[in-house]
Design a protein that fits this description.
Largest sheet: 5 strands, parallel
Helix content: 25-40%
Distance between the termini: 39 Å
CATH architecture of one domain: 2-Layer Sandwich
CATH class of one domain: Alpha Beta
Shape: globular
CATH topology of one domain: Threonyl-tRNA Synthetase, Chain A, domain 2
């Protein structure tokens, strides 16, 4: 059986407003319009590449329903816009290659290679896009075997896609690749392009430094990006991550495959891990030397960011400085399942809401600990019964650092009626800057979903069916209750490791089994993720150190997770 591949663009998981810690202004909650970003899918016209119309291996896909995990996805706005940008940029700046580097709130950041595009040229590109949208030109959407994809992009001089297809010997057998075209200009994607011309009209193309912001959701962008990006901590760390990847010589799937194929992987893993370890050391130094002398350290971030491993590694760094440290996990404050309401859309318990936590107990515990009292801290056993107090009480000194980790670590609702103690806030997320090809970054949300699928399967007793069904709740909560507070952090840690998607390629065949999907929507989502990972040469995890953040998801860590 041939493998199938679907590629898709990395979009925003980084949206929020700036808030101080002690006096928070209530955030603008992301409106219910998130769930209305997508209209029902439009069927694509039955057009084909010339000379392929009679080939039975070439097919047109019509999609009328979105996978369940994508209801809150940004994909249906951004991917068609990227295809349109490719067309318009090719018309305005002929023979100028561009690169989509990573996501920003509401869109993506990109630049032209070796060419500082100016505002006037970007205005011309934007005008061309508006013309195409105004004509309501339809996309041609085809599913093609790898050889025909390669031939198409040889003709259009897309060396990045040719390199991708040739970097893994198994790629020659891949089927299911998508070619999305608009007026003869094509992009390789991994899922259906579902253009909605009315919604695409709101896009913005903005100059930024020597590149540009391509924004599909201007309201989101304006609300989330401080001063249009210049003061965004999140964007700054994306830039830092991309610079590091360029220095290491890997920026896309093809280059990672080259490292694996050339047997340079063990050394590369050491470099990637050392870079991340150095950043954690820098954060520990900043905490210890901070002028406010904070005793509370809050680690927050979206699901599957590696917060627990980060807390443990930060603890070690502080202990090296002869500091006493206590770690508290917000997971231990979950309420009994019986009092957590069902989500009206999925019928499942929504564990992503901050109201699923026993906030009163948490605040009382922190207040008592800081007052020097003995506290029987709760322990949650993932059995739905709620937390049980530990038999042995915990007491700390007035110099002990308390690290609190959990998805809601920066949410101001956590702090009502709490003791007035200086804090340090750390935001952790997997800021992937690894591209599938030059115009298609790996989505940060896909990166975390794959992490969660593997961890849930190996350690939490959840099948991929349940993980995928819960993903809409996860993403909705992140937009409403996590991303809005990221800019209030003192520091941001990128937990993504450049090589890790190839590690998950090793695990995927045993974790995500389309034949065991509960329905067609879940099956499509599983196939899509497997197709992405199938582009990579699988990595055996034996060379990954036991302190790696990646071990939180695949096992073999020297840290205890409970």
């Amino acid at each position: 059986m041939h493998k199938q591949v679907v590629l898709w663009t990395k979009f925003h998981e980084n949206n929020g407003e700036r808030h101080g810690f002690r006096t928070f202004v209530p955030p603008k909650i992301i409106s219910s319009q998130i769930s209305n970003l997508h209209d029902p899918c439009h069927a694509f016209q039955d057009h084909m590449i010339p000379n392929m119309a009679q080939d039975p291996s070439t097919s047109i896909v019509h999609s009328h329903e979105q996978p369940v995990a994508l209801h809150y996805s940004f994909r249906n706005l951004m991917e068609p816009l990227l295809v349109l940008f490719n067309k318009a940029a090719s018309m305005v700046l002929r023979n100028k290659d561009f690169y989509i580097a990573y996501s920003i709130p509401g869109g993506v950041y990109g630049y032209f290679k070796d060419y500082p595009v100016n505002a006037q040229e970007l205005e011309q590109i934007a005008s061309r896009i508006h013309q195409i949208i105004g004509r309501s030109d339809n996309f041609r959407h085809q599913v093609l075997p790898a050889e025909k994809i390669r031939r198409y992009f040889e003709h259009t001089n897309r060396g990045d896609i040719i390199q991708l297809l040739e970097s893994n010997p198994e790629n020659e057998h891949i089927t299911g690749l998508r070619l999305a075209q608009i007026n003869g200009f094509g992009e390789m994607l991994v899922n259906h392009v579902q253009e909605n011309h009315d919604k695409l009209k709101q896009f913005r193309l903005l100059p930024f430094r020597e590149g540009f912001f391509l924004v599909a959701d201007p309201d989101f962008f304006t609300r989330a990006m401080p001063s249009g990006g210049e003061q965004s901590k999140y964007f700054a760390y994306f830039e830092e991550a991309e610079d590091t990847m360029k220095h290491l010589g890997i920026s896309n799937f093809a280059e990672l495959n080259d490292v694996i194929r050339q047997q340079r992987l063990p050394e590369f893993i050491k470099l990637a891990e050392a870079w991340q370890a150095r950043r954690i050391t820098q954060i520990a130094d900043d905490i210890a030397g901070h002028h406010q002398q904070p005793r509370l350290i809050f680690i927050a971030g979206p699901t599957s960011s590696g917060k627990t491993t980060t807390a443990n590694r930060l603890k070690i760094e502080l202990q090296v400085m002869k500091k006493e440290v206590l770690i508290l996990s917000l997971d231990n404050y979950y309420l009994p399942h019986s009092v957590i309401p069902d989500d009206p859309n999925t019928g499942l318990k929504n564990f992503e809401l901050i109201t699923a936590l026993d906030l009163e107990l948490f605040r009382n515990n922190i207040n008592d600990l800081m007052a020097g009292k003995a506290v029987n801290l709760p322990k949650y056993h993932f059995d739905g019964q709620g937390a049980i107090p530990e038999e042995k009480a915990t007491r700390i000194t007035d110099t002990t650092f308390v690290i609190v980790e959990g998805i809601h670590g920066l949410n101001p609702d956590l702090w009502k009626d709490m003791v007035d103690v200086d804090s340090y806030r750390l935001y952790v997320s997997a800021l992937s800057t690894l591209n599938i090809h030059d115009h298609l970054p790996l989505s940060t949300s896909d990166h975390r979903l794959i992490r969660r699928l593997v961890r849930d399967h190996l350690f939490r007793g959840y099948s991929f069916n349940e993980t995928i069904k819960r993903w809409p709740d996860v993403m909705r909560n992140e937009y409403q209750s996590i991303f809005p507070f990221q800019e209030s952090a003192h520091a941001i840690l990128n937990s993504a490791l450049i090589y890790e998607p190839a590690v998950f390629s090793h695990y995927a065949p045993a974790v995500a089994l389309p034949e065991k999907a509960e329905d067609e929507q879940i099956r499509e989502e599983v196939n899509r993720l497997n197709r992405i990972l199938s582009l990579l040469i699988p990595i055996d995890p034996k060379d990954i150190p036991p302190t790696s953040i990646l071990r939180e998801f695949i096992g073999g860590s020297s840290f205890q997770y409970s």
